[in-house]
Write a structure and sequence with these properties.
By secondary structure, the chain is mainly alpha-helical. Among the domains are: 156 residues, no CATH class; 165 residues, no CATH class. Helix content is 67%, strand content 0%. It contains 19 helices and no strands. The protein starts with 6 loop residues before the first helix and ends in a 14-residue tail after the last helix.
Length: 463
């Protein structure tokens, strides 16, 4: 299996880049298709066969959904069934047949299912023309940079880029892409994998820890999830940048959001836009009155919860995020304004607290486990989180300090980006000695702080 954090994946990308820029731009999509199939087959042969079969049915159905006649709806239904069948049968039937989901465990079935669904709905809505070549649609469906955990690409945005990529590898493009990949690996290996140790210990047995340790662990889960998921996104967007592809951004400083509504404009952006365009707006959006808008919001986030997993924890998590936005929409006008500095700070704090609480439910194995965790926070006294760090799986005070330092670096970079300052641009404009000093310091920090043997996969790959 070609894990993004494995040396084999780095070799795979290096070979692809070498071949990519030796291939005429008009034929690069075929090179990408070959790479996609190698990647999929390395992950799972049965999963690769499933995505090929689903893509074939969608390809056959799509052009027939724009024709007049009664068969149009039948073909649309057939195409949607093919696109969503892997998601429904494997993800949700696994509740009734234990072990069924494990048949295609390496695959992010929810990602290619929704991408094919989006393509089919765009064709039937006459937003894009149907693709005449099956192999091009298969190239889109199996795109290796989005296969396991996004970001979601739109067919009309991704595929035209493949026909118009740069002829030669530009030094700036390669350097900037490599820098973004390195930042993603730092997030994953230095922050997410270290935070995972704390989170796993606390959630395994909440009764064994005091209140401060449990609060610390659930805050660490929020940073683990952010560093893990956005780290993966940085890696694949960096590779896309080296290939000359502009892939959709998935994160924009989400912990600086001042409302839950703003949070979802900054967190998992490509998924939020997918649900907006294909669920919320078709339901009526905000065009049919306040009550209908609120119901559409709740419905959309309940569907989002079910997309994440077949369990009550995900449904409650989605419902709480929908409810929070409904409440925000009914706040007095002065409280809805987030442009004033004190109000915005309070909004950021409240939104982060909402994120921490709701994602604690998201992380729990069941609703009863979530209740037990919150109950332990309320009833377990103590404040030994920093003095008894070893109970949370950390090996030394240095291990704890490296975790906190990594989070501090993550927050600092987000604050700079929020202010419009981007480190890659600043470093590129710096004199050569300064530039190499920054590079050497970054390499040293990465080697010092990264947990290379942690062996943890990416959290969102299981969705």
């Amino acid at each position: 299996m070609l894990s993004v954090i494995s040396p084999a994946f780095l070799l795979f990308v290096a070979v692809l880049l070498a071949v990519w820029y030796r291939t005429p731009p008009a034929r690069r999509w075929q090179t990408l298709l070959a790479a996609n199939l190698v990647f999929c087959l390395a992950m799972d042969v049965r999963g690769c066969a499933a995505v090929i079969a689903a893509s074939l049915v969608v390809w056959i159905a799509a052009p027939r959904t724009v024709r007049d006649g009664r068969s149009r709806c039948l073909w649309l239904f057939l195409g949607l069934a093919a696109a969503l069948a892997p998601l429904i049968l494997l993800k949700y039937s696994g509740m009734l047949v234990p072990g069924l989901r494990d048949l295609y465990k390496p695959f992010g079935i929810a990602y290619y299912s929704l991408q094919l669904t989006g393509y089919l709905l765009d064709v039937s809505g006459k937003k894009i023309p149907p693709e005449r070549r099956f192999d091009r649609l298969l190239c889109y469906a199996t795109f290796f940079l989005s296969m396991t955990q996004g970001p979601f690409n739109r067919y009309g945005t991704l595929m035209p880029q493949l026909d118009d990529t740069p002829h030669r590898p530009g030094t700036r493009r390669l350097v900037f892409g490599a820098q973004r990949c390195a930042w993603g690996y730092f997030k994953k290996l230095a922050i997410a994998d270290r935070a995972a140790v704390v989170v796993a210990a606390a959630f395994a047995d909440p009764t064994a820890f005091d209140r401060s340790q449990l609060i610390f662990a659930t805050v660490m889960y929020s940073f683990q999830l952010y560093a893990d998921f956005s780290g993966y996104t940085d890696i694949v967007l960096g590779i896309g940048e080296m290939m000359g592809l502009a892939l959709p951004e998935n994160f924009r400083q989400p912990f600086l959001a001042a409302s839950v509504h703003e949070l979802w404009a900054r967190w998992h952006i490509s998924l939020s836009r997918w649900f907006r365009d294909y669920v919320y707006i078709p339901l009526g959006g905000n065009r049919r009155g306040t009550a209908r808008r609120d119901a559409n919001l709740m419905g959309t986030f309940l569907v989002s919860g079910l997309w994440h997993g077949a369990g009550w924890t995900f449904l409650v998590w989605g419902g709480l995020h929908g409810l929070a936005q409904v409440i925000e929409n009914h706040l007095p006008a002065p409280l809805r304004r987030r442009d004033r500095y004190p109000v915005r700070l309070l909004g950021i704090a409240a939104t982060f607290a909402t994120f921490v609480v709701t994602f604690t439910i998201f992380r729990a194995d069941s609703l009863s486990s979530a209740v037990a965790y919150f109950s332990a926070i309320v009833h377990n006294p103590g404040h030994q989180v920093f003095s008894q760090y070893w109970l949370l799986g950390l090996t030394s005070r240095l291990d704890l300090l490296e975790l906190l330092l990594g989070i501090a670096i993550l927050i600092a970079v987000d604050l700079l980006h929020e202010a419009g300052l981007h480190l890659r641009e600043l470093v590129a404009r710096a004199p050569l000695p300064v530039r190499w000093t920054v590079y050497e310091a970054a390499i040293f920090a990465f080697l010092l702080m990264a947990r290379f043997l942690a062996g943890g996969g990416f959290l969102y790959a299981r969705f």
